[in-house]
Amino acid sequence: MSALRKSHENMLVWEKLPGTEVRSVFFEKLNSIQSSIQFSNNKAQIITVTSAHKGEGKTFTSMNLAAVYAMQGKRVLIIDADMHNPRLSKSFQQVNKPGFSSVLTGVVDYQEAVQETGLENLYFLPVGPLPPAPTKLLNSEHFQTFIACVREAYDLILFDTPPILLISDSRTIGAASDGVILVIKAAYTKKADICRAIDLIEAKQDKFLGAIYNDKKLSKREMATYSYY
Ligand SMILES: Nc1ncnc2c1ncn2[C@@H]1O[C@H](COP(=O)(O)OP(=O)(O)O)[C@@H](O)[C@H]1O
Ligand SMILES: [Mg+2]
Description:
Shape: globular
Bound molecules: adenosine-5'-diphosphate, magnesium ion
Oligomer: single chain
Mean pLDDT: 78
Low-confidence stretches: 1-36, 222-229
Distance between the termini: 23 Å
Order of helices and strands: HHEHEHHHEEHHEHEHEH
Number of domains: 1
């Protein structure tokens, strides 16, 4: 689990997205929701992390965010809900163990599938055996029951999900969450795709919490200015 600490120290930064100095619709939109990100008072207890495409840092962000909160003493559950590309489960070497999909099909109770991670306070629910039709599984009643149960059991629940422009899963999971975070890869994610992704998130009840601008290189002075909140 030291890798978690390392990657957190190295990379993840909550960015105050530019709003005042950049006048594009795109940045104004992101800036307007920035103030609604309020992890500290638990208003957003269940959070879905998504991005427009693959490889933009959803898994990296989810993992780092989960670790940061666990290190602050919060009881955190991170869920590999990417039933298409379960990278979290791979990194924990937990592919094909009972997990999220097993909970959705009612095969196991979530408590039987949740694992400790080696980092205190951080718990992990692997993806489970990959189902042929993952999206359908999310309509299961078991999903709603699961949401209600984890809300009682953890301070923060993070869903690592597939890309929102390609697969609808993160919209469904987002709708059951308190909020959705969009990961944007610097100098990579197209503005039009970011806007499309935000529109999709907002179409499911106003769940957009904000964006994480991933990969941005910051100077030491900037690093000192930015914080995780
Ligand atoms: N900020 C970052 N710094 C360094 N590596 C990163 C960063 N964000 C993502 N990566 C790496 O880029 C690759 C793709 O990221 P990943 O989180 O798996 O993307 P996604 O889940 O959106 O498909 C992974 O190897 C990941 O470790
Ligand atoms: Mg991923």
